[in-house]
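Reviewers asked in the last cycle whether our approach scales beyond single polypeptides. To address this, we selected a multi-component target totalling 1752 residues and predicted its structure end to end. The input consisted of the following lines:
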Amino acid sequence: MSETVIFGGKNLPDVYRDIESEVRRYCRAYPVEFGRAKGSYLYDRLGRPYLDFLSGCGSLNYGHNCEPIRESLMEYILSDGVAMSMDMYSVAKTGFLTALRDAILVPRQLDFHVQFTWPTGANAVEAAIKLARKFTGRANVIAFTNGFHGCSLGALGLTGNSSHRASSKPLLTQVTHLPYCDYFGPTVDTAAQIEKLLLDSSSGIDAPAAFVFETVQGEGGANVCSPIWAQRMQRLAHEIGALTIVDDIQAGCGRTGNFFSFEDLGIVPDIVIMAKSISGFGLPMSIAFIRPQYDIWNPGEHNGTFRGNNHAFITAAAALKRYWSNDRFATEVKEKAMLASGVVENIAEQYGLSAKGKGLLLGLEFSNTQDCAAVKEACFQDGLIIETSGPKDEVLKILPPLTISRSEFDDGLQIVRSALNKVHSSSRRLATVARAAT
Amino acid sequence: MSETVIFGGKNLPDVYRDIESEVRRYCRAYPVEFGRAKGSYLYDRLGRPYLDFLSGCGSLNYGHNCEPIRESLMEYILSDGVAMSMDMYSVAKTGFLTALRDAILVPRQLDFHVQFTWPTGANAVEAAIKLARKFTGRANVIAFTNGFHGCSLGALGLTGNSSHRASSKPLLTQVTHLPYCDYFGPTVDTAAQIEKLLLDSSSGIDAPAAFVFETVQGEGGANVCSPIWAQRMQRLAHEIGALTIVDDIQAGCGRTGNFFSFEDLGIVPDIVIMAKSISGFGLPMSIAFIRPQYDIWNPGEHNGTFRGNNHAFITAAAALKRYWSNDRFATEVKEKAMLASGVVENIAEQYGLSAKGKGLLLGLEFSNTQDCAAVKEACFQDGLIIETSGPKDEVLKILPPLTISRSEFDDGLQIVRSALNKVHSSSRRLATVARAAT
Amino acid sequence: MSETVIFGGKNLPDVYRDIESEVRRYCRAYPVEFGRAKGSYLYDRLGRPYLDFLSGCGSLNYGHNCEPIRESLMEYILSDGVAMSMDMYSVAKTGFLTALRDAILVPRQLDFHVQFTWPTGANAVEAAIKLARKFTGRANVIAFTNGFHGCSLGALGLTGNSSHRASSKPLLTQVTHLPYCDYFGPTVDTAAQIEKLLLDSSSGIDAPAAFVFETVQGEGGANVCSPIWAQRMQRLAHEIGALTIVDDIQAGCGRTGNFFSFEDLGIVPDIVIMAKSISGFGLPMSIAFIRPQYDIWNPGEHNGTFRGNNHAFITAAAALKRYWSNDRFATEVKEKAMLASGVVENIAEQYGLSAKGKGLLLGLEFSNTQDCAAVKEACFQDGLIIETSGPKDEVLKILPPLTISRSEFDDGLQIVRSALNKVHSSSRRLATVARAAT
Amino acid sequence: MSETVIFGGKNLPDVYRDIESEVRRYCRAYPVEFGRAKGSYLYDRLGRPYLDFLSGCGSLNYGHNCEPIRESLMEYILSDGVAMSMDMYSVAKTGFLTALRDAILVPRQLDFHVQFTWPTGANAVEAAIKLARKFTGRANVIAFTNGFHGCSLGALGLTGNSSHRASSKPLLTQVTHLPYCDYFGPTVDTAAQIEKLLLDSSSGIDAPAAFVFETVQGEGGANVCSPIWAQRMQRLAHEIGALTIVDDIQAGCGRTGNFFSFEDLGIVPDIVIMAKSISGFGLPMSIAFIRPQYDIWNPGEHNGTFRGNNHAFITAAAALKRYWSNDRFATEVKEKAMLASGVVENIAEQYGLSAKGKGLLLGLEFSNTQDCAAVKEACFQDGLIIETSGPKDEVLKILPPLTISRSEFDDGLQIVRSALNKVHSSSRRLATVARAAT
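The resulting structure, written as structure tokens, was:
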């Protein structure tokens, strides 16, 4: 990833170049300094607006500084509500748990326990596999091709991406990566292969503690698993004494049209991981939902200082009340998703790309990685923040706030089309030049 | 850890018993629901005050809802400042980095790069050892007896505590635990032993990527390393091509009287980990400080959604400006610490305990673990939140906000004395009963 | 595995029951005490002959006490030839290496180096993967479903069998087990799947140091890989910078008709492991053949006391001279194998079994594991030593000495037919009883 | 290790240079081709004798081609005794087990079970730690500084030597290396330190399955553990639920004056490993002795082709009958050892070296590694095979056959003295030159 921006002067402050670590990444793709943000828009220091089709990688499903979530937070801080109380009981936590029970768990007849891990998705993954290993007494865990679950050592073991794995490779043990749904194309039934491998006592794959998967692989390129595949994984897991863990960090919180992404798959996982948008405001928060029979933690066995982010409890409770106390929001998202997927398919057809994804986690797959990067950059020049994903960054990922308006969405896609046109004609020109040269 | 509280009714909401995971811990020791907090005090729902000698395990060095930090945050939210922007450039981040450079790095002539890891100390530890392993191409890491560095898989490998390690044991590889300073008592020079082991090519201890240690072991029981020991570890590390990583999560941010706990030890570590109090407000935030020559990350190589918590940048910048723009605060803390340590030593002498610790991270070591637990519980009954630490929870840890007033501190210690008296006389009574019975 | 034999008296000496470890296995299946052995026959203490269709699991390709191998050994011992000289140069070693070069390597234009590991196949596997890991600097190794490579920790990691893996599971790391040729049946091209997985940088399968496979999986149930599959594995390995290691412990030394089992597959592996029959006499000996560019060992880097078994050098040299100085023996074995495979297919057809295998490593696969065990036991009662293999011990393995005569082979198969008849009619009787009972 | 020998011509056959692996080691130090061997002497192809102070690293305690062991073997082969029968019952095995029971176990009131592992010491170590891990359900194993237990992956984990560990480092997990007896010198009580570390639940050292140690570290430099240290290790192991495993591969079979090296230490280990000299003839053979309560193997759980080397059973039984049916041999060895140790101490004193070791496993420690190597080479020029050991190869190891005569031993030490004189005067000359040059 190159970084051509000039620091200092009217551009970017020197301090980034001088003391921020080389590990910084998104800032290199969007080299402006953001100040304000509201709804579907970010604004740079000078007030220039950027339409957000990235949404904090799915952390801003309700948009930026969403009212009345913001108001609840303001009010809490104003009243000197406790900010930091580790995992003690607090009025803010009570409020969140009550809202979660009433708006989410009871209506869906789900009896999950709720674990507050440290406030990152990766840590909730760490907690989930630690618990599954404890419960089963087994070390191995099944993960899937192109899965992404985080970068701390335990979560990294589950993550497929080799550039993330590189420096920790010899430590990433006790995970077996198996082919995701349709990994070998639509004609190969990977579920059947996985069943054979795990029921064969001589396959060399040790009986696992858990199967960990995303129902839509966000970082993996908007790959979708079918209901039947998910069901077969769950049936197999239970047949061999393993737990199912659904990583709903990116696909959950309404992204695919339901609060939990598995609601239309016909399964109930044993553990569900949620983070990103759960706070409703982009504040660090994560949860592991655990079926009660597996909640065999000793007190404090998986601990950490920031297990209870009271500010996030306040915003999360407000979000649940605002968006999930009835079906209206879910219905809206599903309708938007249907429209959006139609438009994206049109674009795909028009430009020779493949449309992928589900809900409002959509993707356009390029055969040419360079074009994909060029489109992303051209979009940014035109005021649209959009990212790529997939093993070769070959999928342009469309991940707007769920609260985006029809016209904002159209504006965004218009920028995408325009970028595609530019890149398309530039490619054609290059091809013509190349032909002329021979 | 038992939990005798009755849920429901006028006590605690049912929702905790019904759906919060069994992993919850501190709430069992302090079974009330906290609402407001200010300065050195937490208040429960009914308004009862609790003096805080735990300070979010060191996350609230400036107390609860500290003004003017709170004001800065209010103002930011009011102006729709962006809350969530992953690791993009933002006005809030610029402000924090600038304050950090000007108030901390430049005056100390430290040339650290700053990595924003996910906002927990454990994750900063994960990042640090991953980077050290990448830089050296070595897998092994040296950690120390009674060290505590977190519960995600990589950090857990460094952590000594067996109850945390239990369910992940077979996965906790490539860490060698060696005896901390004075681990075998003051007459055994563990630095010399460590030197012999690591310079002997046949000791079986593989050349390490890094030495990771706390200068004061908070969870380990307020154990302190001497300057000479720290210097010898650093010299040895460099002699054998390893990095030094100081985990300053609990002992840093002024806790021992300087911003960095190593400032009076005569070393400059290659990487320093800071979390807990760095945000100044108890918001999730963590940092790895990295000497530039080791900052060989590829962009995004260690990533995660919540790498930039803008709310925390705002509060952290406010805290740096308020407390660290000159020497006044550090001087005050050192004076308080001197007084405090005198008082604690008095108490130790009076009650047959041992005084431990450094700065305002002090401890009273009991020979009898039950007594220690009883004192903690009696303190809570009298309105003082205080915790135990050490391998057997035999050390009562005194960890007040650094901003605590003289009279608040005295009030707290008075509660401790009173609890000691109660437990003392109860022990004596029991002993008398036991004698009478024989 | 049950053991109904009565120890003591005219049966078996008490000393086995009293002090031999519970780990003993084959003796439980063939509970007699063997004394003499010659050619294709073992004789128990009382002189009763047993035809040997097991051949020391492939260690006795030239039969028991084969002349003139035995004579060479007698002569050597008589002359006080050095028995034990670690890896020093010795007249016996010179003789073996010279015979190997002249009879095997030169005619096949193979430029292998020869490493004498400790005298077991598993240790040669340990050496091979250690060397591949050293050469590539990578930890991961690709092994295959139903592969068997030994029980020491490194070799065990490659072995598929879960009962062998059970007690070491958490330590068996850095091996990825992929589906062997035809593992999912003849219509699924596992080579194509493996290519996709290993060329996808996000599959989660780390770049391997080596691919390790058997060309015929002896313990795995006489599964055979096709030439094209072997070639694609070799091409893929080289494309991604990995070595190919063929484990020829059971399938080598003429078992499939050529000295090396890969000779008719169109590949030349980077490392070949040979053990079992290499000594020609059943004495412990093993070899790793290494292409010179990979022979980057430091002197003594993989060492061990019994790296040079001079008695085995003498017998191995005699065997090479007797059987491999021209094509005659190989031709005979191929002819025998063709006949044998025809007969075995006939039996399979007649009794509703599947014929498997290659060369004189043949198998009859039962759909019913009990029947397979019953046939094995009935054979033993009639004086035939024969074993089962496969993940469920469902394959009766036909592994006679390569030197077996036509009539001996017919005698053996006659015993198998007779056992099949007995088991068949007993099954039918049981089925009739079962039907009558309903 | 350099190799200056010229291959071909009247020197060494080309075939070694051409096709033997670079891993060969001892042959580089003793670059002649050995043919015959008898008693304490090896003879090269041309008949030149070499006195053997290495004894196959302890595999030839009864000397080369020892009568009547050789006669028993000849007779067995002549009668077509079965050579290879895996782990079936055989007349040869019966004979060995009976001799072992009668000559060794019964007189010492030891109730060990006997496991025949594959015929190498390392494999017996693999078996022992696998069994301890199975029995305890724990992964970690305690090994000691400078211990040497073999080079297969499991055994290598226990081995201290970094040059052996180098290429497998990231895979050598679940072993904690602790300081051996007197590792930090005679004033530091390492047993007390080990007790503290293992009884501290927060030391970071996981509860182990076993303690594995040598009573005299042969490869580690002839380091000796005291009876009290061994007893404290055994007591500690049992207190924390771990097994003790004594690796008696080099120190056992009479080397220290008793059959088992632990007989004068006041302990009975839970598992004892024996190899090297157990066959009495230098043939590959090894044993794990297991206290019955720990013999929880499933049949075949740790298997391998060469688990029963019948030739070795014959020679081992003959050796037990000849040397261990009464106390005479043990008494002789002890007397020899006493004399030998006196002489070696004299030499040490005379040449400024340190005398080390126990029984007939003695060592002379040099402060200057170069001198040690030079003495070894000078000895070989004068017809004495002698090796170095210790972390820097700084200890000249004196390991003659136990059957060596007084005059042979004196001859050998005379060669050592003479070599010391040469090296001494050469060092002095160099020093003089160096002084003159300044």
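Residues 32-65+328-437 of chain D form a domain with the Aspartate Aminotransferase, domain 1 fold (CATH 3.90.1150.10). We regard this as preliminary and will revisit it once experimental data from Aim 1 are available.
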